[in-house]
Amino acid sequence: MIFGALLAVAVHADPPVYHGRQRHLEIPAVRVAAEIVVDGKLDEPVWQQAAVLTGFSRYAPTDGAAADDSTDVLVWYSPTAIHFGIRAYAAPGTVNATLADRDKIYNDDYIGIFLSTYNDARQATVFAVNPFGIQGDGMLVERGATGGGGFGGLSIGREPTDILPDFVFQSKGRLTDYGYEIEITIPFKSLRYQSQATQTWGINVVRRVQNRGYEYSWAPAQRASSSYVAQFGTLKDLTELHRDLVLDVNPSVSARSVGARTAASAYGYDQSADVSANVRWGITNNWTLNGAVNPDFAEVESDAGQAIIDPRRALFFPEKRPFFLDGSEQFAGPGGLIYTRRIADPDVALKMTGKRGRTTFALLSAVDGKDVSTTGEDHPLYNIVRVQRDLGRSSRAGFLFTERREPTVSNDVFAADARVVRGAHYSGLFQLGMSTTSRDGAERRRGSLFLADLRRSGRTFNARWGLGTLDNDFISQTGFIARPAVAHAFFDHSVALYGRERALVKRYTLDVLADGTWDYQTFVHQGDMVEKKLHINNNAELRGGWQAGASVLYEKFGFDPALYSGLHVALPGTQDTVPFTGSRWIPNRDYVFTVATPNFKQFSSNVLYIRGQDENFFEWSSADLVWASYSVNWRPTEQLRVTGTMSWQSYKRHTDGTLAGKTRIPRLKLEYQLTRSIFLRAVGEYYADFADDLRDDSRTGGALFRDVGGRLVRARGYSTVEARPKGVNEFRPQVLFSYVPSPGTVVYAGYGGALHDPEAFAFRSAAMQRLRDSYFVKLSYLFRS
To answer: 3-state DSSP call for residue 325?
Structure first.
């Protein structure tokens, strides 16, 4: 009788509650050997036993105050998975939610769960879900890479989440009369974690409320801290976690028909079919072996067009292939020395990643296709090794080795780096590197790299000081070097002021950036800079989620002989030409304006507008610049999304107002989500690029000629195609059908093409010429044991 009464009291006892604002941040994990149906309803009895996380605080745009909306997060774990239930309270009609594709939920209200499964205060796996249960996910790795000194002001807060990796987990959500409710199950198969029998994980939960423009955090994190992950709470005493065998086999079949014009101007198609396979074996909780045969690029939407702002800087495109994304956080490091898109079309690749104690190890080997080799007959071999060691609470040291080898050419890079975190506000990032490049066993070039980046993160005063150098002979054939053979130094100071609770301006930042760039050899010999910049940025975060900014940019650019080698200028009144040398300096003064709206229920937008006197890189002279970028997102229904962007860049000669160059890239994307797994997408992009015949505008006014095989031809701008005089006008349509019930299991069918328009935006169907197109189908299925 007494035993029965005690049991009844125990069953109906209130669940343990952990209040974030009261700093109840240590959660003894609740283990229940139970199974549930993930349906978005927290009605199973097991949820009454779960730990409850509540008492959220504001995190963005300002931190510290109590959250305006209540949130309860229920958490427990079974032998094979960890489970979360969310009850988010909101006024009727205020919740933003759409039926969207994966990772397209960040204009909606959403819940984000951060699990630092190694409890190392350095990285976390992120699982995000909107009120309908649509998923977003990724990895947060703290590497001291928060931005600063740009038009958005000095960034304070957590580093951006890499949303490209995808994980298998289950989620469902629904709107309720009090707000919304979400149910989430994350299998241990989808996580990497420690090998100890009893574990402690770092944990935090955030909630985004779009109609208020706020993000709330369960752990009362401070945006000014040098580490976001170090401020997490902990989930303690996790035991008997059963991952079982983790073996993912992901075969894929794709077929493509590619059309293009031949040398005889006829149009024809080449058909091809590929079979590929990725295999992922979780050897232990924290060691994973990946293998791939013919890993396809898996892109279903081509890279958006980019205007060339500075022809000396390479354009960066993110990695999208699943094989290279899995475990990519283990390869993270400064300097851009690992850029897996350099491995263009591998025949076979192998990767092992894992962590033992405080040491992380990552190895990648790949054999690339013949088409990217120097000779066109050999298979380049890539090897990448990355080792990192945790030091103290948030610091770490790392080592990197990369190589690319062919029979006659090789490139090796060795680098050591460290991130040092001292206290809550100070951190430093350091790197030393050396490369060796050999050709034909005789010619050998050695170059060095150096990087130092010091930061102070505070609520009111923030600062960055940095110096980086790249030797003329430093080459990384496995990395991304935006601009080689330079030295770069800067300091960036900002002051932030905060408004009262009901003030229009919630946060105002005055940011001053001084920036200098040298040619490396000039830097070594203590010569003058080739670029000098002073940027004064004003930025405000306003009530309701609005953002606005205004900046003044003072710059001075020195002549770069390497950029204009091979150019000649015609001497006025004669038939003679001499090598083009250009003016010594070009002074700039630009004005920048930015505006971003909140994420309204059906609409959001942002604008960047730059106007002033800027460098005309086409001719190395001053120009009247207009540079603008617009973006509009319209969500008229829960299933339809319309995204329009426009990039505009024009240079008019400062001397007579004639047009030297202009690039316009409008892009319209329509997405219709039929179901959670099926959507249709149509994209239309127009790339209109014009460059006038070049002349020595700043000095003689003479025509410029380019040396082509010993013959001087009239010079045109950098981004034009010589076969189409003075411009490129291409309309690029894309259509896609997509069925993705879970990561790895996909059905894609689509079309992409390009048509040449003789006159920009004329759209005269009879005159437009088809340049290239392709039809493709991809089928992939994830077999998970």
So the answer is: helix
d(Cα 472, Cα 164) in Å, to the nearest integer? 33
Biggest CA pair distance of the chain? 115
- Range in 155-159, 358-362, 452-456, 464-468 the model is least confident about: 155-159
Rounded to whole angstroms, the Cα distance separating 560 from 631 reads 34
- Separation CA 609–CA 466 (nearest Å): 28
β pairing state of 51-54 and 17-19 = parallel
Asked whether residue 719 carries a pLDDT value surpassing 50, the answer given is no
Can you tell me the distance from the alpha carbon of 157 to that of 141, in angstroms, rounded to the nearest whole number?
Answer: 13
Cβ–Cβ under 8 Å, residues 256 and 774:
yes
Q: What pTM value is reported for the model?
A: 0.88
SS3 229: helix
322 prior amide bond cis, ω within 30: no
Is the separation of the CB atoms in 261 and 172 below 8 Å? Answer: no
Q: Which residue has the tokens 């790249």?
A: 470
Sign of the alpha-carbon torsion through 222, 226, 229, 234: negative
Q: Look at residues 89, 134, 139, 81 and name the one whose alpha carbon lies nearest to residue 115.
A: 139
DSSP 311: T
256, amino acid identity: R
Contact criterion met (CB below 8 Å) for 772 and 257: no
| β strands within 210-342, DSSP E | 214-217, 233-239, 246-261, 267-282, 287-293
pLDDT tens, residue by residue, 597-625: 999 999 999 999 999 998 888 888 889 99
Tokens of 727: 């411009």
What is the C-alpha to C-alpha distance for residues 207 and 221, in angstroms, rounded to an integer? 13
Contact status, residue 481 vs residue 469, Cβ threshold 8 Å: no
Phi, psi of 522, deg, nearest 5: -65, -40
Output the CA–CA distances (angstroms, integers) from residue 304 to 300, 667, 669, in the order listed.
Answer: 12, 8, 11
* Exposure on the CB side of residue 723, measured as CA atoms within 13 A: 3
Token reading at 626: 């207009």
Instruction: Report helix, strand or coil for 194.
Output: coil
**pLDDT class of 718 with cuts at 50, 70, 90:** low
Please state, in angstroms and rounded to a whole number, the distance separating the CA atoms of residues 97 and 100.
Answer: 9
Residue 233 to residue 21: CA distance in whole angstroms: 11
Angstrom distance (rounded) from CA 223 to CA 206 = 13
| Cα–Cα distance for residue pair 297/277, rounded to 1 Å | 12
Q: Which phi and psi angles does 422 have, rounded to 5°?
A: -120, 115
Tell me if 631 sits within 8 A of 622, measured CB to CB.
no
If we measure between CA atoms, which residue out of 327, 369, 77 comes closest to residue 203?
77
The three-state secondary structure class of 645 is strand
pLDDT at residue 148 above 80? no
* SS3 call for 263: coil
Beta bridge partners, 402, equal 384, 413
Q: What is the pLDDT of residues 721-780, one digit of tens each?
A: 444 456 788 999 999 999 999 998 999 999 999 998 888 888 887 778 888 899 999 999
CA 73 and chain centroid, separation: 29
